[in-house]
Write a structure and sequence with these properties.
With 191 residues, the protein is of the alpha/beta class. 41% of the residues lie in helices and 14% in strands. Strand 5, helix 6 and strand 6 form a beta-alpha-beta unit. Helix 1 crosses helix 3 and helix 1 runs parallel beside helix 7.
Length: 191
């Protein structure tokens, strides 16, 4: 008898876990955690054991030659270490290193990263959730059939436009990752 697909929590990285920068997070020294984000993942892990937490992030700085793939990997390792220090874990990191003009299927708003993770982790996307700080995250979630949640911790200069578009797309709006996780605790406990 084969196991049934399970749901997952997908997270954007920059603007959800760590502060986003207009010129990309390019070094470990530029990694600044959004308050409460690592702890929120730990709360999620404790309340939903066995539900994978997967980061799905556009990293066009790689394709533009501004960031080495090894630096992105080192930043992801540092994020994982901080989340583990808070008592949680991230199951996988998926990144799209391509520029916007390359039109690749893994660059959000396309759902390629989520679909790849679904195949590799045996996930049911229609039961999964994507938390992001931009309309591209909301659109990727919708294209994959996942539930989109929008957090207001992205770049300040884009926040109002992104939030307005996310609302028009029907995404739930939350102050930050801890607030979105608290919503999931209530919503999924009632399901």
């Amino acid at each position: 008898m084969s196991a049934s697909p399970r749901w997952a929590l997908f997270l954007d990285r920059d603007g959800v876990l760590i502060q986003n920068r207009p010129d990309y997070v390019r070094t470990l020294e530029q990694v600044v955690f959004i308050p409460g984000a690592p702890e929120a993942i730990a709360v999620f892990n404790q309340n939903f054991p066995g539900v994978p937490v997967i980061v799905a992030s556009n990293q066009a700085g790689v394709g533009r030659g501004l960031i080495a793939p090894e630096t992105v990997a080192a930043i992801n390792t540092a994020i994982q270490a901080r989340v583990q220090a808070a008592g949680g874990w991230i199951d996988a990191f998926y990144i799209c290193p391509h520029r916007v003009d390359e039109d690749c299927p893994c660059r959000k708003p396309k759902p390629g990263l989520l679909r790849q993770a679904a195949v590799e982790h045996f996930l049911q996307l229609s039961a999964s959730v994507m938390i992001g700080d931009s309309a591209t995250d909301v659109l990727a979630a919708q294209a994959a059939g996942a539930q989109p949640l929008f957090v207001q911790t992205g770049l300040a200069e884009r926040l109002i436009a992104e939030q307005t578009y996310a609302e028009q797309l029907g995404a739930g709006i939350y102050a930050d990752l801890p607030a979105a996780i608290q919503f999931l605790l209530t919503q999924r406990a009632l399901a």
